[in-house]
């Protein structure tokens, strides 16, 4: 019996060609797996195409809600980003795809999984790390980075596909490489490969340019429960509706664009352009509530852990004990992060204008400079005296060390 593999299938040219290639070169039968993560494409045609390409079985799953609740929202609660603000849309999708490939492989008695990644991206690492973590016994086949792959151009692939009755692309290929889901869009290649080139307007898909955005600002109100967004403009929405709706509004105001040179896991630097309109607003709003509701020292403690979380997601280590441990920390961190934030969207910016929470640590009677002030001013001198006691000790020792009462350093006579 031929070995079965489960292929992560997008319906694009590469993954379509992989199906007959695995059969002819490796004697493998291919089950395709395609997921809807909110990439905005119909998956029905993908089913037809997989069959025409020779798949023995076609699996399609709507994973949009799971993607948000199990991957994106934990990352939001952890305030995880990489490279100066990349909100990790692509990186968060891959472990879910990897886990689903494992599930389908097990359910169908497949010997392994396959993907169409090249050898120099992060996504191959993320998918394979998920498989290693969840089912180390499964074989991994990656035809496109295999020395036997053999195709030197897209034309050769189209030719190979046409000869086997596989539908070939009719439209001209975009110069850009895209990866899109509900959380955002990653854009690479084409003229973006020169970091000096301004990203052309036609590269963007989820936002208008700030110059073309409406002259009138719009306000959105986002309600959070324990760090997770649950309502938009006073209306409870499910995660998919909320993120999709907020993304449309924010994108229409030019919010969420990012242009970076980032450090890939495989060691190279690459120019990446991102759009994450909903994520950008949710991150700003979540931060505003954290400021209102989380204690000072906990906020300070969390900052390096957020950076760690972002790095480990980027590096493909989602299914790791360190991620689970950090989720424990951030669940506790977000326990009081409930309330509502008002954000103004205007020509590319998302600025918080107001925030409120029943669990705020902010107390107006302590913060106010009016007659309502309840802060104990008489406690301040004693506090400062003890706070600065070590500094006074330092000064008196300076006198013993070099005959100077600390004045030399500050050039005080
Ligand atoms: N550089 C981003 C990341 O590593 C985006 C990758 C885009 N992937 C793609 N298949 N085009 O997360």
Question: Can you put this structure into words, describing what you see?
Answer:
Strand 1, helix 1 and strand 2 (28-36) form a beta-alpha-beta unit. The strands form 3 sheets. A 5-stranded parallel sheet has the order 3-2-1-4-5, with helices on both faces. A 5-stranded antiparallel sheet has the order 10-9-8-13-14. A 4-stranded antiparallel sheet has the order 6-7-12-11. It is built from 14 helices and 14 strands. 42% of the residues lie in helices and 20% in strands. The protein has 3 domains: 4-62 and 90-176, 3-Layer(aba) Sandwich (Rossmann fold); 179-356, Argininosuccinate synthetase, chain A, domain 2 (Alpha-Beta Complex), CATH 3.90.1260.10; 367-402, no CATH class. It is elongated, with a radius of gyration of 27 Å. It starts with a strand and ends with a helix. The chain has 413 residues and is of the alpha/beta class. Arginine (ARG) binds next to helix 4, strand 6 and strand 7.
Give me the secondary-structure topology.
Layout: E1 3-8, H1 13-26, E2 28-36, H2 44-52, E3 57-62, H3 64-77, H4 89-107, E4 112-114, H5 123-134, E5 139-141, H6 154-163, E6 177-181, E7 184-188, E8 218-225, E9 228-232, E10 235-236, H7 239-252, E11 257-263, E12 269-275, H8 277-293, H9 296-314, H10 321-333, E13 339-346, E14 349-356, H11 364-367, H12 379-387, H13 389-402, H14 407-410
Parallel strand pairs: 1-2, 1-4, 2-3, 4-5
Antiparallel strand pairs: 6-7, 7-12, 8-9, 8-13, 9-10, 11-12, 13-14
Helix pairs in contact: 1-6, 3-4, 4-5, 7-8, 9-10
Bound molecules: arginine.
Residues 90-91, 122-123, 177, 179, 186, 188, 272 line the site of arginine.
